[in-house]
Amino acid sequence: MALPPPDPVFVLRGTSAAVHTLHFSCGGPEPDIPLLFSGSENGFIHVWNLKTHRVDTALDGHGRKSVYCVKTMGGKDRLLSQGRDQRICLWDLAEGRTSVTDSVFTEHVGFCRCSLLKVAQGRWLMAMAARSLEEVQILELPSKTSVCTLKPEVGAKLGMPMCLKLWQLNCGSQPVLLAGYEDGSVVLWNVSMGKVLSQLICHQEPVMSLDFDSEKAKGISGSSEKVLSIWSLNEQQNLQVYKTHELVNAGISDITIRPDKKILATAGWDHRIRIFGWKKLKPLAVLDYHTATVHCVSFSDHSNPRERLLAAGSKDQRISVWSIYAET
Amino acid sequence: VCFIPGGLDCSISFVSHVLGKVCVHGRQKEILGVLVPCLTDLTKSDCIWQRICWRLVECVPDRWMEAVVLGFVQRTPGAGVLSRLLGNLVVKNKKAQFVVTQKILLLQYGHTTAVLQNLLGYLSLDGLRRTLLLRVLQELLETWSSSSTVKHSPVEQQLYISKAILICLSHLKEPEIESCRQELLTSMMEGMKCHLDSSLPKLRRLGMVVAESISLKINTEGPVLKFEYEEDDETRELKSLLVKTPSFCVVPSLPDDDRSEKAGAALPLVPESNEKSRTAAPVVPDEELDAELDSDDDLIPYDMSEDKELKIKAPVYIRDCIEVLTGSRSEDMDKWEATVKALESLVRKNPAATREVSVELAKILLHLEEKTCIEGFVELRQRAQVAVLTTDPIPVAKYLTSQFYSLNYSLCQRMDILDILVLAAQELSCPKFHKKTKYSGAQKPCIQLLLGSDSSKDWRRIVDERIKSKTRRFDTGQSRVELASRPNEFSSVAGYFFFPLIQHFDRPLTTFDLLGEDHFVLGRLVHTLAILMYLAVNTAAVTAMGKALLEFVWALRFHTDSYVRQGLLSCISSLLLSVPTEQILADMTEMLLETQSWLGDVMEKDPDGDCRRLALQNLLLMENLKKKLEAVPS
C-alpha cells in the first residue's frame, strides 16, 4: 500500500503576486541563516528566512516589472536577477546592503531565463537571450564583455530561445550551451567557436524548460504538450532521444534535477509538482497543493542531506516548501 | 448474311432499308443483337468490310436514320467499334448529326453512361468529327450554365448533362482546350453561380464537381478550384469520368490475361515487405530489457492514484452560468468552455431556476459565439437552447419567433431558431421521452412510472390489488408492458410555436426578404411548419393550425423554388394526417377540393420528381380520407 504523498513542510505567504522564480542559498556554514530568494510578478525579490519563515528583505530593482529569474553568484551576498524591464541586475547584499551594483540592458522582451556558469574564481559566463529574435549572447561577468553571439543559420526557423543551460564537463574544458527553442528543438552550441554541435527536435511545441546532468550526459526537457523528452549526448557530441514520458495533463513550466542527481521535479500547468527518479524516470510522487499553475521548482543546496528541501512557486502567490526523499 | 465483294451496291441499299424498317418498328434489339457482333468481328481488320458497313448505314433513309443510329450507339461495345461501324456518318448525314449531337445529348436524358462514353468517344476519334465534339461541348456548357435550366429541369437531366460534359472534357486535347479556354472559364463561372444558388443539395454538389473538373482542365499549372463537399458514390463516379477510358473497353480475351498476370506478379511483393518490417521491430525491445540494476529501487513511490486529468469545475447554478457566458474576462476561457459543456444538464436539472431567467438565457444562447475551439460547439449550444425552450416553452417561444422576423440576424441564426423550435416540439410531444432526473413536484416512489396527479391512480392500484388477491387465476397470459403515459406538453404551447412563424412571412425587412432572395430560408420555414403541424396531432389547436396552414400553402403554391414546393406538399401531408377527419369535413372541404385539383396539376406537370411523388402521396391520403368517411355509416 503506497503512502499518500506528504504535505508541504511549510508554506510561505506574503509575496502578494504570482511567484515566477526561486533560488535557495543554504550552503553556508553554521551561523548563516538558510535563505530562499523569490522573484514575483510585481517586481519584488523577496529574501525569505527559512528559520523564521518570514521575509527578511524585499528588493525592488526592476521598476515593478515581473522578475522571472534569480540566481546567486557564489554565496548569498551576490545576487543576479532578471526582469521584464529588459534588465539583468547584479546586487550586493553583504552586510545588510540592498543595492544594485551593476546592470545589463539585454533588450530581450521574452521570458527566457539566463544561465550562469562559474569558469574561474570571480569570473562567470552568462548566457542570455538578446534583442534579435533567435540569438543568444554569452557575456562574461562581472566585466560584461561579450564572449560571442550564437546565431542560428539563416532559414533554421528555430524561433525564440526559450531556456538555456551553460555547462562544462569539468573545470578546464570548453563551456557548452544547451538551448531549447520555440520550434521544439534543443541545440548544443560550442561557445568558444560559436557553432552548432548538434540539434535535436524533442517536441512539437516550444521547449519550456530543460535541465542537464553532465555526469551522465543526459538531459530532460518539458514543453506545453503532454510529453517529457529525455535525451542523451554521445561521444561525438550528438544529441539523441533516449526516451519520452507521457504526462496526464499537458504543460510544464519548469524542470530541475536535484544536485545529487537522484530525483528530479517538474512544475506543471495542472497545479501539480511531479517527482521522478532520474535514473529511469520512474514516477515517484505527485504533490498537489497549489491552486494555480506552478511556475518554478527549485532544490536546496543544504550540505546536510537530511535538511534538503524542495520549493515550488505558483501563480496562486504561495511558495510551498517540501521535504521529500531527503533520507536517501 | 454473306457478301461477295463483287456486286455490292445494290444489295447493300436493300439491306439498309430492311435494317431501317426493322429498327423503326422497335426491333433494334433483335436485329442489331445479331448484326453488331458480326460486323464488329468482320470490320476489325478488314477495310473493305468497314466500308461496306459504312455504306450500309449511310443508305438508310432519313426517316429511319434516328432509330438505326440510336440502336447502334446503344449496342456497340465501345467507341472504337462504333467508329469502325459508323465511320463519318455524322459528318455526311444531316439527320445522323442532329440525332448524335442534339437529340441524344440535349433532348433525351434516359441513356446510360456507357452510351454517352460511346457517343462522345466516337466523336473524338476522327479529326473531322472533333469539330463536332467541340460544338457539342459548347452547347452542353451553355445548357449547364443557364440559370433557367438549373431551376426548372429535372435533376436527372442535369446529372446526365454533367456526365456528358465531363466525358467531353476527358477527350479534349491541349490545343483544343487552349482555343476555347476563355469560353470554358466564362461558362464555368456562370454555371457555378447558378448551381450554388440552388436549394437542393444534390444540384449544388453536381455544380461543384463539374466546376472543379473544368478548372482542373483549364488550369494545368497553378491553383485549381477545390470545393468542400461530402464524397459519395455519385461524385466518385462523376470524377472517374474525367479520366479517359481506353477506347476498347469491353474486350474479352487477350488484354485481360495480361492484366491478371501483372496482378499476380504484384501480390508476392507485398508479403515480403511486411515480413521485413516485422523483423525490424523485435530488435528494439531487447535493448530495453538490458537495464542495469539501479539504486533507484530504494526510492519508494508514493500513492499517485489521485493524479487524474485536470477538470475545470463548471458552475453549479444557472445564474453563475449566465455570468460566465456574458462576462468579458478573457482569462476564464477554461471556465467558459466548462460552462458551455455543462449548461444543458444544469438547465434540465433546475427547471424552476431556469424559468426565472429563461428569456435572458435564450437571448444569450442565440447570440453566443464560439470563443475557444470546443468540439461540437454548435451541438452543445443547440441542446442547451432546446433544453431552455422545453423547460419554459411559452415565453421563450414568443421570444424566438419574434426574433425570427427581426432585423440584423444572420440566415444561420434564423435557421437555428427554426431547428430549435422543431426539436423542442418533438421533445414536448413525444410520450416516450423520459427524463430521469426532474420533476421537483412531489413524487412518491411508485412502482409505475406514471407522472401526473398521484391520488387518482392510487385508488385504482388498491382496487386492482384487492381484485387480484380475490380472483383465482388459471393462466396469466402474456403480460403486455404498457407504455407509461404523459400529458401532451406540446398541446398547450403548439400555438405559440406555430402562429407567430406564419404571421409575417410576406412582410419584407431590409435585411430579410422571405419571398425574395431568401427563398432558402422560406423553404426551411415551410418544412418547419410541416413538422410542427405533424407534431400537433391530438392537440387542441390543431384545427386552427390546419386552416392557417392551408391558406399559407395556397398563397405560395406556385413558388419557383422546388425545395419550397416540396415543403408545401409536406405541409399538406401533415395537415391531412394530423387534423381529425371530422374537423376536416366540417371546416375545410372547399379549400381541400381546390387543393386536390392543384395537386393533380403538380403530379402531372411539375418538373421536380420529388414534388410529383409528394403530390401523389397527398392525393392518396385524400382518397383514404374519402373512403373512411364513406365507410362510416352516416
Report on this model:
Chain B: Belongs to the TEL2 family. Chain B: It is found in: Cytoplasm; Membrane; Nucleus. Chain B: It holds the Pfam family Telomere_reg-2. The complex is a heterodimer of chains A (328) and B (634). By secondary structure, chain A is an all-beta fold. Chain A has no helices and 28 strands. Chain A is globular, with a radius of gyration of 19 Å. The mean pLDDT of chain A is 90. Chain B is extended, with a radius of gyration of 35 Å. Chain B folds into 4 domains: 122 residues, no CATH class; 119 residues, no CATH class; 111 residues, Serine Threonine Protein Phosphatase 5, Tetratricopeptide repeat, CATH 1.25.40.720; 144 residues, Leucine-rich Repeat Variant (Alpha Horseshoe), CATH 1.25.10. Chain B contains 32 helices and no strands. The chains are: A mainly beta (328), B mainly alpha (634). The interface between A and B is medium-sized, with 25 and 16 residues.
Mean pLDDT of chain B: 78
Q: Give the total of beta strands of chain B.
A: 0
Proportion of strand residues of chain B: under 5%
Question: Quick one: biggest sheet of chain A?
Answer: 4 strands, antiparallel
List the strand order in the largest sheet of chain A. Answer: 1-28-27-26
| Domain tally of chain A | 2
Q: Tell me the Rg of chain B in angstroms.
A: 35 Å
Low-pLDDT ranges of chain A = none
- CATH class annotation of the largest domain in chain B: Mainly Alpha
* Count of separate DSSP helical elements of chain B: 32
Query: Which term fits the overall shape of chain B?
Result: extended
